[in-house]
Automatic annotation (TrEMBL):
Belongs to the short-chain dehydrogenases/reductases (SDR) family. Pfam families: adh_short_C2. Signal peptide: none annotated. Keywords: Oxidoreductase. This is Tropinone reductase 1. The keyword Oxidoreductase applies. GO terms for molecular function: oxidoreductase activity. The keyword Oxidoreductase applies. Gene3D superfamilies: NAD(P)-binding Rossmann-like Domain.
């Protein structure tokens, strides 16, 4: 049961960072994987890299915030797999600003990618998840969902909404044996955070707040996603697993 045994998995935002580590780990655990990204060249480069390592996964150019692109994902799943066992809503963006400085367009963009897309894509794929008879949705939230960590208000709002999306769908879809959980990472070394973590004073401030005195590797987050995807976690639904090196329990 510590495997994914040919389960069919979709990972949004699968070419970089946490999504990429998740695709790799799912393949190592013997899952079949479909991943998305907005960049055709990133997808073909990752597909080639995987082939060289002896794995086969399919990538689709799709912006999960766009309805037509979500329909494209649905069509692929319908045609190739029919059922779907795992969905990881990982694609996410941030724009860091003071609340007063966001344009309406920036605010909407963050909410559309981080929150609306997981809701709409989950609904679109509901029949395929139901057909699985044993499905798991994992939403990648953030420490920012639970407290202000200086990421900017729209990002925090979107991730907080994602936690409640997980709880509500977990209850509504439990009778279809679809589990829905969240993972909330604190700072993790990925392209999204690279430039921020390269600022020495920012890194120092993060480490001061983090008892384990380091940031996470993407593989430390994909390990939790994999656990929630597999049958070993079969009685866990509606929960949020926090991976923050002790940051949230530190008041020293
Ligand atoms: N890194 C952290 O410290 C951290 C902490 C807490 C939570 N998180 C969350 O973890 C998730 C992954 O973050 P990350 O740090 O791994 O980010 P990343 O390094 O920027 O990677 C994000 C991936 O998602 C894709 N993507 C972004 N927007 C997309 C969209 N609209 N449709 C499809 N694909 C899209 C990107 O590819 P393209 O750009 O090619 O589309 C890329 O493959 C995000 O939800 C983020 O909010 C990260």
């Amino acid at each position: 049961m510590w495997r994914l045994n040919n389960k069919k998995a979709l990972v949004t935002g699968g070419t970089k960072g946490i999504g990429r580590a998740t695709v790799m780990e799912f393949l190592e655990l013997e899952s079949e994987v479909l991943f998305t990204s907005r960049s055709e060249s990133d997808i073909s480069a990752f597909e080639t890299e995987l082939k060289d390592k002896g794995y086969s996964a399919h990538g689709i150019v799709a912006n999960s915030a766009k309805k037509d692109d979500r329909i494209k994902i649905k069509k692929w799943v319908e045609e190739k797999w029919g059922k779907l066992d795992i969905v990881v809503h990982n694609a996410g963006i941030n724009i860091r600003k003071k609340a007063i400085d966001y344009s309406e367009e920036e605010f909407r963009k963050i909410l559309e990618i981080n929150l609306t897309a997981p809701f709409e894509l989950s609904r679109l794929l509901y029949s395929n998840l139901k057909e699985s008879g044993n499905a798991s949705i994992i939403n990648v939230a953030s420490s920012a969902a639970m407290q202000d960590v200086g990421t900017g208000t729209p990002y925090a709002m979107s991730k907080s909404g994602l936690l409640q999306l997980s709880r509500s769908l977990a209850v509504e879809w439990a009778s279809d044996n679809i589990r829905v959980n969240s993972v909330s990472p604190w700072f993790t070394k990925t392209p999204l955070t690279e430039s921020y973590l390269n600022i020495a004073e920012k890194m120092k401030s993060i480490l001061n707040k983090t008892p384990l005195n380091r940031v996470a590797e993407p593989e430390e987050i994909s390990a939790i996603i994999s656990f929630l995807a597999m049958d070993k976690s079969s009685f866990i639904t509606g929960q949020n697993i926090i991976a923050d090196g002790g940051m949230s329990v530190n008041a020293t």
